[in-house]
Each structure stands twice: as structure tokens, then as C-alpha cells.
Design goal:
The protein contains 20 helices and 24 strands. Helix 11 packs across helix 12.
Length: about 575
């Protein structure tokens, strides 16, 4: 009797086990009828993909076979309707928390992204913003984002008197499109304690009027950063969360499933953690904390500094800035600017943030001792020289230890620096969007024809055998993924000039630099960046195939849907 009972239990266990195995093989959703560009060189195209628990179960060309194999009673079948599908776009570098502030600020962008084409128009936009914005009543300060002196009719920065014409009763701060300069009205300067007795801080400049003493309202680099952090309102956690969620929607509309916050201050870090703890992020967010601002922040020593996400948030490392921006003429060059900024000599080459290289060396050594990835902002070739030097020194001191460094922007990298970057295993994240937005300015005012043609040299990096990523640097511009693709492939300026045609890359290479290669930059290539078995089911659905349409039509592609781990998080209306 016992033997019979035992036999029956074995049969029952076997049947139950088989049923469980059968159930386990079923997909939660099978996507069909897609023109799927996988970014997997060994299997570049597919028609269908099966997903289970947010992961890719299988990818295939024969969608009937995939459906037959993985369709269960609860499996959803979703058609891509013959649209093109790429992996979710991995944001290689931007500033989520600043995009959040931008969302509640006056839009001072020039065309095609805004209307600030001259100073009177800029003043009008600010007046309308002050009149209508609820944030003015709440916080008593007007913030404008992304004016660009290179695109203003006057070809200069506004001054404090012109902002005083907008208002003398409310402090006004307007941010340059580079993010590295700002202009303040007289009341804002007064509230920040800036007057004729104020000295330029290390790594920053307070620009003066003709008397050489009185601040004219324009401040650059650390002079700007120190003051703007004093004046930006102290938003509540809920207010910042609301702003962050508005910013998140902008990224989702661009097919981005991993977002970076690339220079996070302590308040921004606390706000991101608050939002993550409330489980409000729909996609992954990677934080790179400003090292100097967060040197004593114990959060960097906690569990969030990890390759694993907690509520879709992790700290990926830290960031340092070695110079400023070429369009703002604060990037550090070895050769002078073609046209120096107002009140600067013809020998002006910009300036380093770290005039004392020993201080920089200690900071870089500290990041490597902690095992943190370092994002190093360096635009000018002199700043890149400085980065190469400190990484070389760190490598010598640490022997065989891998130095984990990402060069952010590297716009004016020289040909001779590329091999050094390769030898030191510095990952380049470059910025070809400048070819559209500031290519003409770089040619005619910043660096001249020859140097400008080599800005963000993606083809040369590829020829050297380097993987690289390309980024938007939002909010410098919107996180417009198709503008990013277009600029890397076409390198066409606002005036329709092709800037450095030999540095153009194919659409497929550009897409890799927006998906699988930035995933490599994050050390997440095992789970993101391509449509392969075992990876996250992160997809962007496009209106057209970037590999077959005319290159000049890339900018016309629309993001129709963004899918994160098998869940739709954005649909084009």
C-alpha cells in the first residue's frame, strides 16, 4: 500500500513539475511584425521578440515559430505594425535635475527650439514669464534657461541693465545655453553679495564694466555656479518630484530608457532619492555626483553606489569639470580663440577649472581608491591634456589597476590625443550635436575652420578602434534623440554647411553610440543596449527605418512608443 501511494505521489509530482515547466516557458508578451534592429552584430535583424518578466525570452526572424513556441493562455500578442524597433536609447550624458528646473523656467532658446533671436525678444519672453508663471509668486525669482549669445542678433551677452529693464523688483537669473555662464540683474547680484569689491573665485570670472570694477551681470564657471546655487529657490521635495516627473516625460518622448544626471549636487541627490523611494521613476536613472560638492556626503558610501538599481535609481560614480564650454568661450585651449570674448586679449585661450593640478590629482586618485567611475568634463584640448596627465599619473601609482574614466564632451580633442585616450582606456562620450547648434560659431568665432572641422571626431575615434557614445547634454539642448542621430550622421550646421565631412558616421554606427556603446560606458552591456536573449526588454519604436531612409530625413523620424521592460511608458498621440 505504501509502495502504491509513493508511486502515485511521484506521478503527481512529475505531472505538476511538467505543468510548471510548461507554464514557465510562456511569454508574458510577444511582439510581432517588427522591423527590429537588434544592435547584435551576430543577429542584426529580427521580426519578433518574446518577453517574460521584463526580460527578452527569445528573438527571431520567424515570428510564427516564436508565437507557437512561447504563446500561452495569458500571453499578449502585440504587433509593431511593421514599424522599426531599436533598443531603448541609453542617455550617455545629460542633467535630469537641471532639465527639471528648466521645465518651470522661461524658455530663452533661439530658433528652432525657442524664440529668443535678439535681446528685445528675450526681454519680452521674460516679461511674459514673470507675468504668467506661478513659480514667480511662489519663489520670488525669475529664472530663464538657454539664451545663446552666438545666436542673438547682437552677437553678445545681455547685461544687468537690460535685465533691469525687465524688472528691478524681482531678481532675475538667465542661464547661457552652455550651462557655464549666467547673467544676473542688479537685484540678483545684490542678493548674491556680488559688487565691485568681489574677487573672481578660483576657476571663475566676474565680468566687469568699463571701469574694470563694477560687475556687468555676466559671470562664468565657478563664479556663476557658486552664486546660482545660492539663488535657486529651495523647492519642497514634492515640488521637485513634480518637476522631475515632467522632465522624465521629455526623455520618454525621445525613446530614452536610461537617464543620466551628470553633475548632481547634494540637494539634487536627495530629491532623486525621494522620488525613487516613492517609486515614481518609469525608467532607470544613473547619478554622477559632483565630487567637490559631495565630498562629505555619506550617501556616496552607501548602497546606492552600486551597479544594481534600487527603485530604478543608482549612483554610477562621480563627476569633475576641468574646463568650460567652447560656445561660451570658457573651454581651455592650447591655441587662442579666433575671436576672444569682450575685454579679453587676443592671446586668450580660456582657462582651467583646476589651476592647481595637484588638487585635481588628489581628487582623481581618491575616486580610483574608492573604485568609483569618474566622468571628466573636458572640452578644450588643453583640458584633455590635463586629464590625460592625471590619469597617467594615477595609473603609474596604482600599477595594473584599471582606471575607470569617461571623457565627457571632448569636443576639441586633437588627433594625437586619441591614441593616448585609447592606451589609458578612457571611454570617450562625445557631442556631435554641436555641429548643428554651434558649428558655424566654432568656424567663424571660436576656433576657425580647421579646428572646428575636427570637433567631436566620431569617425576618427572609430578608426582608432574605440567604442564611444554620443549625447545631448540636456538641458543645453532638449534630449532630442533624432536630432542627435541626425547630427552625428550629417554634421550639417544651421547654415547647411557640412562641418568635417570626413568625421560623419553611418546611421548604424550612430545608433550603436546611442544604445549598446553607452551601455558599455555604464558597464551595463550585459543587460542593456541590444535586443538579445536575457537582456531587459527596453525598446524604442520609430516611425521610419534610419538605415534605409535618406540621411537628411533622419531628423523627421518620430518616436512612436517607448517600452521599458515590456511595459509601454510612452505612446505618441
Amino acid at each position: 500500500m505504501l509502495c502504491k501511494a509513493f508511486t502515485l505521489s511521484l506521478i503527481f509530482f512529475s505531472l505538476t513539475s511538467c505543468a510548471k515547466k510548461e507554464k514557465d516557458k510562456y511569454a508574458s508578451v510577444i511582439y510581432t511584425n517588427g522591423n527590429i534592429i537588434t544592435m547584435n552584430d551576430s543577429f542584426p535583424k529580427a521580426k519578433a521578440v518574446a518577453v517574460k518578466n521584463g526580460l527578452i525570452l527569445d528573438v527571431g526572424l520567424n515570428q510564427n515559430e516564436l508565437v507557437s513556441k512561447y504563446k500561452g493562455p495569458n500571453t499578449k500578442l502585440v504587433s509593431f505594425n511593421e514599424k522599426t524597433v531599436i533598443p531603448g536609447i541609453v542617455d550617455a550624458h545629460s542633467h535630469l535635475t537641471t532639465v527639471a528646473v528648466q521645465a518651470v523656467s522661461a524658455n530663452l532658446l533661439p530658433p528652432p527650439d525657442g524664440g529668443a533671436k535678439d535681446i528685445p525678444t528675450l526681454q519680452k519672453i521674460l516679461k511674459e514669464f514673470i507675468k504668467n508663471s506661478p513659480t514667480i509668486k511662489k519663489h520670488g525669482i525669475a529664472i530663464g534657461f538657454n539664451y545663446d549669445d552666438s545666436q542673438l542678433k547682437e552677437k553678445r551677452h545681455p547685461n544687468r541693465q537690460e535685465l533691469d529693464e525687465v524688472s528691478t523688483e524681482i531678481p532675475i537669473v538667465i542661464m547661457h545655453q552652455s550651462g557655464h555662464l549666467g547673467v544676473y540683474n542688479s537685484l540678483a547680484l545684490k542678493k548674491a553679495g556680488i559688487d565691485q569689491n568681489s574677487k573672481d573665485p578660483a576657476g571663475g570670472t566676474i565680468y566687469r564694466e568699463k571701469d574694470g570694477k563694477t560687475p556687468n551681470g555676466l559671470m562664468a564657471e565657478n563664479a556663476h555656479f557658486i552664486v546660482v546655487y545660492k539663488l535657486i529657490p529651495k523647492y519642497t521635495n514634492n515640488q521637485i518630484q513634480e518637476m522631475l516627473l515632467k522632465a522624465q516625460e521629455v526623455y520618454l518622448k525621445n525613446g530614452i530608457t536610461t537617464i543620466q544626471d551628470g553633475r548632481t549636487d547634494p540637494n539634487g541627490l536627495a530629491s532623486l532619492i525621494y522620488t525613487a523611494n516613492n517609486k515614481k521613476f518609469k525608467v532607470d536613472v544613473v547619478v554622477y555626483a559632483d565630487l567637490e560638492m559631495n565630498m562629505d556626503n555619506k550617501t556616496l558610501l552607501g548602497p546606492l553606489m552600486s551597479e544594481a538599481y534600487t527603485n530604478r535609481l543608482r549612483i554610477g560614480g562621480v563627476k569633475l569639470s576641468l574646463d568650460g564650454s567652447p560656445q561660451g568661450k570658457t573651454a581651455w585651449f592650447t591655441k587662442p580663440y579666433l575671436v576672444p570674448p569682450h575685454n579679453e586679449k587676443n592671446s586668450y585661450r580660456g582657462f582651467p577649472i583646476f589651476k592647481n593640478i595637484d588638487k585635481l590629482q588628489k581628487l582623481v586618485d581618491y575616486t580610483q581608491k574608492k573604485g568609483w567611475q569618474l566622468l571628466a568634463h573636458a572640452n578644450g584640448d588643453a583640458a584633455i591634456d590635463q586629464l590625460i596627465q592625471v590619469v597617467e599619473n594615477t595609473k603609474k601609482n596604482d600599477g595594473e589597476k584599471e582606471i575607470n574614466t569617461v571623457l565627457i564632451h571632448g569636443q576639441f580633442i586633437r588627433k594625437d590625443q586619441i591614441q593616448k585616450i585609447k592606451e589609458l582606456n578612457i571611454f570617450p562620450s562625445v557631442y556631435p550635436m554641436h555641429t548643428f547648434y554651434w558649428g558655424d560659431w566654432h568656424r567663424k568665432s571660436v576656433a576657425g575652420e580647421q579646428r572646428a572641422a575636427f570637433t567631436s571626431p566620431t569617425a576618427s575615434l572609430m578608426k582608432a578602434g574605440l567604442k564611444f557614445s554620443i549625447h545631448t547634454d540636456a538641458p543645453v539642448i532638449f534630449p532630442d534623440s533624432m536630432r542627435l542621430l541626425d547630427s552625428a550622421v550629417n554634421r550639417v550646421t544651421r547654415s547647411e554647411f557640412i562641418l568635417g565631412p570626413e568625421e560623419r558616421i553611418t546611421p548604424l554606427t550612430a545608433l550603436k553610440a546611442m544604445t549598446i556603446w553607452p551601455a558599455t560606458q555604464y558597464s551595463e552591456e550585459s543587460r542593456k543596449g541590444s535586443i538579445e536573449v536575457g537582456k531587459l526588454a527596453d525598446f524604442a519604436v520609430l516611425s521610419q527605418d534610419p538605415l534605409t531612409i535618406k540621411h537628411r530625413d533622419l531628423i523627421k523620424i518620430k518616436i512612436l512608443q517607448t517600452i521599458k521592460e515590456g511595459q509601454s511608458v510612452y505612446k505618441f498621440e
